[in-house]
Amino acid sequence: MMSKVLYIKANAKPEGASRTFKISDSFIEAYKESHPDDEVITLDLYKENIGFLSEDDIAHHNVEPGAHRDHPVLKYAYQFLEADKYVFSAPFWNLSFPAILKAYLDYVMVSGITFKYTSQGPVGLCHGKKAIHFVTRGGEYSEPPLSNFEMGDRYLRIILGFLGIQDFKTFAVERIDRSATDTAILVAEKSQEASELAIDF
């Protein structure tokens, strides 16, 4: 059965300069080779020129299912709902991820499309899907004490769980900016590791 993959990229660096993208691109290339019948949609948030929601935009965030599918605000939520797998590629910036990714998630979080309110509380509508987050970090934020300051991957995991996506993996490359790190070798090693991971995603 064919799957639809949404490759969500969030980095302002020019083409070829992002170490995060080098690793996640290797994953995507290997995924396409091992899943030739699947559809991969690349969504570069900076090229999409994702902005912050306005007062008028928010007024569209409580809709009847199936309504206004081509609306410039709602189209991202419908696209997200229709995907089966998600690949997020966003570096570690200021203890989180680039703000444009949060802005994009604000477009995705639409009551009546990706989740709904019930008498028992909110319920996600994106069950049975899976996600992976590629992130590069200058230091070591997977272990205490600095893990207490990591708020990007943690937020992404929680917000996707809110939508019903429980199958979430993190592919973190740590200490990439430490003076003792050979960055080129590390990126090459992690790119190979990501390629191997793609086969079973």
UniProtKB/TrEMBL annotation:
State if DNA-binding is listed as a keyword. Answer: no
Q: Which residues form the Flavodoxin-like fold domain?
A: 3-192
Which positions in this protein are listed as binding FMN? 136-139
* InterPro entries tied to this protein: Flavodoxin_fold (IPR003680), Flavoprotein-like_sf (IPR029039), FMN-dep_NADH:Q_OxRdtase_AzoR1 (IPR050104), NADH:quinone_OxRdtase_FMN_depd (IPR023048)
Record EC number: 1.6.5.-, 1.7.1.17
Q: Could you list this entry's UniProt keywords, alphabetically sorted.
A: Flavoprotein, FMN, NAD, Oxidoreductase
Which Gene Ontology MF annotations are present? electron transfer activity; FMN binding; oxidoreductase activity, acting on NAD(P)H as acceptor; oxidoreductase activity, acting on NAD(P)H, quinone or similar compound as acceptor
One matching Pfam family: Flavodoxin_2
Reaction equation(s) it catalyzes: 2 a quinone + NADH + H(+) = 2 a 1,4-benzosemiquinone + NAD(+); N,N-dimethyl-1,4-phenylenediamine + anthranilate + 2 NAD(+) = 2-(4-dimethylaminophenyl)diazenylbenzoate + 2 NADH + 2 H(+)
This protein's superkingdom? Bacteria
Gene3D superfamilies linked: 3.40.50.360
As for what it does, the entry says: Also exhibits azoreductase activity. Catalyzes the reductive cleavage of the azo bond in aromatic azo compounds to the corresponding amines. Quinone reductase that provides resistance to thiol-specific stress caused by electrophilic quinones.
Q: Which family does it belong to?
A: Belongs to the azoreductase type 1 family.
Q: How does it assemble?
A: Homodimer.
**What is this protein identified as?**
FMN dependent NADH:quinone oxidoreductase
